[in-house]
Write a structure and sequence with these properties.
By secondary structure, the protein is an alpha+beta fold. It has a domain at 111-173. The protein has helices spanning 3-25, 33-39, 41-46, 50-65; strands at residues 111-120, 123-132, 135-139, 144-145, 149-154, 158-163, 170-173. A hairpin with a 3-residue loop joins strand 4 and strand 5.
Length: 175
Amino acid sequence: MTSTRLTALVSGLGLVATWVVNSYQVPATSAPVSARAAASPASRDETPLPVVHVNTDHLREDARLRPSFAAPRRNPFQFSAPMTPAGPVPLGATSQPAPVDVVAPALPPYTLSGIAEDAGPDGPVRTAVLAGHRDIFLVHEGDTVEGRYTVVKIAADGVELAPVGPGAPLVLRFK
């Protein structure tokens, strides 16, 4: 007999033995659950388990302590609907403070992206790389940027721009 046949025989005998043992553990005179419940309905109602009483009392207490449902004041599916006030407002209490005009400081129109330096006959010649208005500008001292600013000085760490018209000079530095 080969080992494969021996393994199959032992497995089959094990299955048959398991089936036989489990078939003897089920009582032969067991009635269906519905028949048992119909035979003794009073015993089920008269003697509930004490654990059930404790849990139901706890649930009733939680229901009393829970706040009642308050309908929402807004409709999340309607974007521009005004909110209704929570209650009546006295006539004298509707004054609102005057709006404060906060003026944010104007951001510089350009940012300094880099500075390049080449050796020239009279010393280093610097080129500034400015980024702004979705464009990049390569400028030297004396150049005009978009007709708005003139490059006054390019140092190793920053650029000084003077407005063409009236206004304060603008100094751009590396961040």
